[in-house]
Design brief:
By secondary structure, the protein is of the alpha/beta class. A hairpin with a 7-residue loop joins strand 11 and strand 12. Helix 1 packs across helix 16 and helix 10 crosses helix 11. It is globular, with a radius of gyration of 21 Å.
Length: 367
């Protein structure tokens, strides 16, 4: 059996990054024993601290498997201070010291970290990211990342940018590679928003549902990112680009459901004002309930035209029964016509997102 060795620098130690670190620690020995895959974590970094060891960081000593992340976080907080420049130079230094391939794994939502991707790929470092910024940002920079990665024989993988651990991007890539053409996509892509709208009831107001989504760790720490629709817009742009359409965020037709003034001011201001929307959403809830409909925030791609909007779906729509934080995507192609391919499942949560990142890491490792 051929051994696959991959060196890993993990950037981001929050909910997703921490969960990924636990998953690697739990699987490290069995992957080596049963499949001859050696995942060697040589760096753990964030904007505050940095821990590196070109021979490999001993995850057993950090007690990640035994005590969760509490011991690790205590140790990590005492590591040398970090910065963007330090992360950049340390990753390149590690690349120079290592014989086997290196992958930079980004579990942040940072624009500044995403700006490092191109230089890392230029230096033959693969990228795996949950961060959506690069894939949904400037299209010329995005295309350059993909082209350079191909030319340099490294990988740029971002499956969890859409649908957490669901195999959406990979499926579209396989459809396109086999000669099919994506004509239309209709999708519920925000686990957070679906959680909110499925929890609306006579006993749970809109503002309470938003608070529940935050407490369940489905929303961003600042829920305005979800409520503004920007997260769904980014995901739709990524799907459109994967489907062969040159789309940017500015091209998406936006029909949003929270007025602009709720995104002004501080986060405390937002929470104070949010209950003012409860009466409106209660009336909307009663209306759809009387017609046996459900509210869904739907993203659409139709021959290159993109839109997002809050829609009322009836019992015949595949998204009608969508529960909790689940996502659903209907992919219409020249082959899957008139009946679309449907992918459905958990679209939010640290566990499934980290597992999706883990899957991309294993793909880079060649398995």
């Amino acid at each position: 059996m051929q051994q696959h060795k991959l060196n890993i620098v993990l950037c981001g130690t929050g909910t997703v990054g921490g969960t990924l670190l636990q998953q690697i620690a739990q699987q490290q020995q069995s992957l080596f024993r049963e499949r001859d895959i050696l995942l060697n974590v040589v760096g753990i970094v964030d904007i505050f601290n940095i821990m590196t060891n070109s021979r490999g960081i001993n995850l057993e000593e950090l007690k990640i498997k035994d005590n969760g992340l509490s011991t690790f976080r205590e140790i990590f907080s005492k590591c040398p201070k970090s910065s963007l420049d330090i992360i950049h130079s340390e990753v390149l230094s590690l690349r120079d010291q290592l014989i086997h391939p290196l992958v930079f794994v980004d579990c942040t939502a940072s624009y500044e970290i995403a700006d490092l991707y191109q230089d890392f790929i230029d230096h033959n470092i693969s990228i795996v990211c949950a961060n959506k910024v690069a894939a949904s940002g400037d299209i010329e920079k995005f295309n350059r990342l993909k082209t350079t990665a191909t030319n340099n024989g490294v990988m740029y993988k971002y499956e969890t940018n859409v649908g957490a651990g669901l195999p959406i991007i990979r499926t579209i890539d396989h459809l396109i590679s086999s000669g099919d053409k994506i004509t239309k996509i209709e999708a519920v892509l925000s686990g957070t928003l679906n959680y909110i709208f499925t929890h609306l009831s006579k006993d749970c107001t809109f503002s309470q549902a938003v608070q529940k989504a935050k407490e369940a760790h489905f929303s961003e720490p600042d829920p305005r990112i979800d409520l503004s629709g920007i997260d769904v817009i980014r995901k739709l742009v990524i799907l459109a680009r994967e489907s062969g359409y040159a789309v940017s965020q500015e091209d998406v037709e936006k029909h949003l459901f929270v007025p602009d003034e709720y995104f002004e001011g501080s986060l405390d201001d937002f929470w104070a004002k949010l209950p003012q929307l409860d009466a409106h959403f209660e009336e909307l809830r009663k209306e759809v309930e009387s017609k046996n409909e459900h509210l869904r925030f739907v993203a659409k791609l139709d021959n290159g035209k993109c839109s997002v909007s809050l829609e009322k779906v009836d019992i015949m729509h595949p998204a009608y029964t969508l529960e909790g934080s689940n996502n659903i995507i209907l992919i219409h192609t020249e082959r899957y016509n008139p009946h679309p391919m449907i992918i459905q499942g958990y679209g939010a949560g640290a566990g499934v997102t980290a597992a999706g990142v883990f899957s991309d890491i294993l793909y880079v490792a060649g398995v």
